[in-house]
Amino acid sequence: MVPAAESVAGGSGVRKTHPIVQLDYRVRLPVCLLVLALWGTLLIRREASAWLWALAVFHGLLWPHLAYLHASRAANSKLAELRNLLGDAFLCMLMVAVCSFSLWPAAAVFITLNAANLSVGGVRFAFQGLLAFLAGALVGGAFTGFAVDLESSLAISLLSIAGLALFTTIFAVHSNAQTRSVLRTKQKVESQNLLIAEQNRYIETARAQAEEQRAAAEQAREAAESANRAKSAFLANMSHELRTPLNAIIGYSELVAEEVAELGQPQLQPDLHKIRSAGQQLLELINNVLDLSKIEAGKLELLIEDVDLQDLIQEVLDIARPLIARNANVLEVSVEPHLGAVRADAMKLRQVLLNLLSNAGKFTKDGLLSLDMRGAARDGVRWLEIAVSDSGIGMTPAQIERLFLPFSQADNTTTRRFGGTGLGLAISRRLCELMGGDIRVSSEEGKGSRFTVMLPVLGLELASAGAEA
Predict the structure, then answer these.
(1) Which of 108, 210, 391, 408 could form a disulfide with 367 if both were Cys (CB 3.0 to 4.6 A apart)?
(2) What is this structure's pTM?
(3) What is the DSSP string of 305-345?
(4) Can you list the pairs that 182-186 forms with residues at least 24 positions away whose Cβ atoms lie under 8 Å?
(5) Looking only at Cα atoms, what is the longest distance across the chain?
(6) Phi, psi values for residue 298, rounded to 5°
(7) What is the rounded CA–CA span in Å between residue 339 and residue 375?
């Protein structure tokens, strides 16, 4: 049985036995046995001494295994195997010399081993093999007095020819197998290279397409942002032009209403009231659109100041109570004492709270509304929390997700039933963000909603500095 290739763990990692070591081992096993028969035939004819028989047995039975162990355990297995081939040349020519340089054995040994040396190590190594032949001949000839007997019997000739044929056949078969293995490996590598090249072309094409799509998307985004900024800038600049005629309509409708009352024609009052109400609704819508456009255009300026919370709440309640009472709702107010002031834009904060209270009153009927205001501390920063709760229709998680989108309400049914533009909450959240805070919402369908306004007590800049510290 031929030993398999070995892997030896060394200080520099894992090393593998060179393929030539296994090939030479497969050649030596049968050839050395045949050569043993050849040496035995020659030695019987010459009545050789015991040490020559021992040398012949060593060469035929032990040498193949010793050579393999030497090469397979060496740090450089190929170099060790080259030394083994030189040993083959020396031993074989030594035996040829002690057998009086018989012609056929000498020719077989020289032809086979010189061919092996040329194929494995090239011309330079083959020259070293010739030196090994010469050394073996000199050592062997020294023991026999360089006796020469070129004649060979038929048995010796046949054994020599058989050894030559066996060596070349085994060597050729294994060399051909290794060559075909190398060719298969080369074909496999070429196939893999073609596959890799195809994949690289595909990746390059996909990368180019992705780059084109990214560039197109970037251009589309820039175009959309430019159009949005232009739209927002236009609407923001149209503030005076839009509000002035509306204020005139509302003002003249009030004047006409007063004159109609003086003229004693009360039947005209409802129509005038509708004109005034429609004008106010349109003015509120325009104000919301303009506020949103200013925010998006970056033109909304805040007037940050110390806002007295007690006064602010009172102003908000004075305006909100009539709106809340329309649907027979009850409002409960809870304000933590000694809150003091907060750094914010008073008008914008009033707008946010009025929007939340009016929404709570609009979506609740015969229910309970609450306004809770208290202080909180988070990450070393003092916060103001204002919570507006109601017991109204509530919302589903899907409705909450789109709640703060501009021009969007919970769903189309809500819009048809309760009216509105869907701008109030979007503007309120953005105003809170501009003041360094936010609005959070929690709700359950059929059980009401809770909106919580959170603002830093010291204002946006100081709150950011406190959070970093």
Answers:
(1) 391
(2) 0.46
(3) EEEEHHHHHHHHHHHHHHHHHTTT-EEEEEE-TT--EEEEE
(4) none
(5) 162
(6) 70, 25
(7) 7
